[in-house]
Amino acid sequence: MPPSRSPFAPIHALVARRTGTALSELQSRRIDEKLAGRPGGMSARYLLYLQSPAGAAELAELIDAISVQKTELFRDEAQLEALRTHVLAPLVARARRPLRLWSAGCATGEEVATLLVMLAEVGADPASTVLGTDMSETAIARARELCFSSEQLQRVPLGVRDRWFVSLGSGRHSLVGHLKERASFLVHNLMEPSYPSTVEGRGFDIIVCRNVLIYLTPESFSRVVESLAERLASEGLLVLSSTEPLLSAPPSLRTLRYADAFFYGRAPPEAPPGVPAPSMPALSAVRPSQSGLPAVRPSQSGLPAVRPSQSGLPAVSPTRPGDPPEAARGEDSAHRDADALFSQVLDAVGSQSQPDPQTEDSLRRCLFLDPDLAAARYLLGLVFEQRGAWTDAAVEYRRALRSLEEGRARATPFFTNNSRLQMACVRAIERVERATPPTSR
User: Fold this and answer.
1) 341 and 204, same structural domain?
2) Cβ of 33: how many Cβ atoms within 10 Å?
3) Buried/exposed 305-323: b ≥16 CB within 10 Å, e otherwise
4) Which of the chain's ends, N or C, has fewer CB atoms near its CB within 10 Å?
5) What φ, ψ does residue 271 adopt, rounded to 5°?
């Protein structure tokens, strides 16, 4: 039943508003199933009850029903390696104090365990801590155990598994005790105005909020990012997933680009007139990408110059039908050009307070060179979505999804996990369809 026709549509709206979520059809059905057997059905009185202190427990159950609790240990290895090499290790060497990390939207605790292990592996101060929060009470109850199945540990390197996990028997494994002691958990809704803070009051050194924002409405997305940025320490870093790039970063954040990942650092405060602003310490040098693509430093004024052909698109070596070697070389050349241009787009994304009009043009040029560059199509969809062009956004998301489903899409730096990108496209399509007025569909 479409959500607009559901007898519980007002409750859908309440849950969506409280969580900032763009409810999918599955999430709406879960709410309906929860309420279907309720005596008396839907009523204005019940809606008021859910919004009262007396109804808080029932509202929490509905929020729990829509929460996404799918996560993994050491998820997105390329990004985690960049975090370890370029951020954690230099920070540990420089800070020489306990670090404070926050996993926002930690689900059942896999990311908290991952961060605790990473801190231990780089030799962080033993008093360093990781806070895990989630809006689901059920998820937090499981997360507090920091216990995982043998299947979950299969993706963990054997040496890491032996050092930091102990068998409990019956296929269950626990994080070692001295690491578990460094974790704390809290039920927290990112849409609530009150956010966690560190004991010292200096802010978090690193906040990790991955694969959470894709479930939010654009307005909630922006609000949460700004709130998280406010909780960062002066040199703190915000880590989002590759499918949640900031097309326009708030003034409080600056984009930091590395060979296989990008993060968002707390921007230094504006200096008084005539006084140079303090520069953010470099966490580590930018290294060339293992894929062979240049790791271009962020441009200070939009996209780096790209020489277009007379048609307005980058020149591509011509290929001749019937000449497979030449055709293959031409296709490889086009793919390299597309990847290089896409790399430049990523440099520019998030470096402006407002979306750069050139971003759309550059993404279209990427897709002229390689129509199956699904990551570029996904970003183009995000550009349209941020602009409120819901129909155009849905078209690009569907094209990207089709390319991924049919196996034609190439993995690219920052978007190396095509299955995760495919899931992000599905979620994006649901999100924009919900936002599209019925007359525009």
Assistant:
1) no
2) 11
3) ebeeeeeebbebeebeeee
4) C
5) -85, 150
Same domain, residue pair 102 and 218: yes
User: What total number of domains does the chain contain?
Assistant: 3
- Other C-beta atoms lying within 10 Å of the C-beta of residue 28: 23
* Residue 177 maps to a domain: yes
133: β partners:
104, 186
**Same-domain check for residues 432 and 385:** yes
Q: What is the spatial distance between Cα 356 and Cα 348, in angstroms, rounded to a whole number?
A: 8
Considering only CA atoms, give the Rg of the chain: 23
Q: How many CA atoms lie within 13 A of 208 on its CB side?
A: 26
Residue 421 CA to residue 373 CA, distance in Å, equals 12
End-to-end Cα separation, the chain, in angstroms: 18
Give dist(CA 340, CA 141) in Å, integer.
45
Same domain assignment for residues 43 and 104: no
293 phi-psi bin (left φ>0, alpha ψ -120 to 50, beta other): beta
Compute the distance between CA of residue 113 and CA of residue 74 in angstroms, rounded to an integer.
Answer: 9
Residue 351 lies in domain = 324-440
Report the alpha-carbon distance of residue 233 to residue 205 in Å, rounded: 5
Q: How far apart are CA 79 and CA 56, in angstroms?
A: 38
> Is residue 319 domain-resident?
no
Residue 12 in any domain: the answer is yes
Cα(12)–Cα(125) distance, integer angstroms: 45
Tokens for 42?
């839907």
Q: Are 245 and 413 in contact (CB under 8 A)?
A: no
Q: Based on the domain organization, do 58 and 39 belong to the same domain?
A: yes
Inter-residue contact 261 to 242 (CB < 8 Å): yes
Run means of pLDDT, 10 residues per run, the chain, 441 residues: 68 92 88 80 83 92 87 89 93 91 95 96 95 95 95 90 93 95 96 87 92 88 93 93 80 82 80 47 40 33 36 39 52 81 76 68 91 91 88 92 90 75 88 69 50
Which residues are CB-neighbours of 355 under 8 A, at least 6 positions away? 247, 248, 383, 386, 387
